[in-house]
Amino acid sequence: MPGKCNAWALNNGLIQLQATATHIYICSQEPPDFASASTTYALGNMNFGAGNCLTGPTARSPNGSKVTTVAVTNGSVTGTGNASRWAITDNVNSRLLVDNDLAAAQAVTAGNVWSLPAFDFGIPGS
Fold it and tell me: Which domain holds residue 109?
């Protein structure tokens, strides 16, 4: 039988993520580290400030815990290219926290704005 992670352990990891996340970036490819997410592959970003980028944690269905991003409505496009990934960073401590594929790649042009609806991600409980 597989092990089970209790809510306290799940939530504490997500609480730190929620408390330290500052930015959501759009990137041209998968960033392996903070510098790649925030500079090398970055095509745009939105600075929410520490603790304002994510909400939660809350219960995840069917089990576990999740956090939810704040919707980006006026992110700054800083480079021209095809955005295919999102990345959430802690710019205060130069950390790449999480990243994943966008639902669809999108061409972006420097000087424009970008948006991204709120979305959930989490940790299963078992």
Answer: 7-120
Assigned token pair, 80: 């021209």
In the chain, how many domains are there?
1
Alpha-carbon distances, residue 41 vs 33, 49, 66, 87, 93 (angstroms): 10, 21, 27, 10, 19
Give ∠ CA 27-86-42 in degrees, rounded to 5: 25
pLDDT digits (tens, 9 = 90+) for 3-36: 555 566 666 788 888 999 999 999 999 999 999 9
The answer as to whether 2 is a domain residue is: no
| Per-residue buried b or exposed e for 19-56, using 16+ beta carbons within 10 Å of the residue's own CB | ebbbbbbbbbeebeebebbbeebbbbbbebeeeebbeb
Tell me if 116 sits within 8 A of 47, measured CB to CB: no
Contact between residue 27 and residue 86 where contact means Cβ atoms under 8 Å apart: yes
In a domain, 126, yes or no: no
Do the domain assignments include residue 125? no
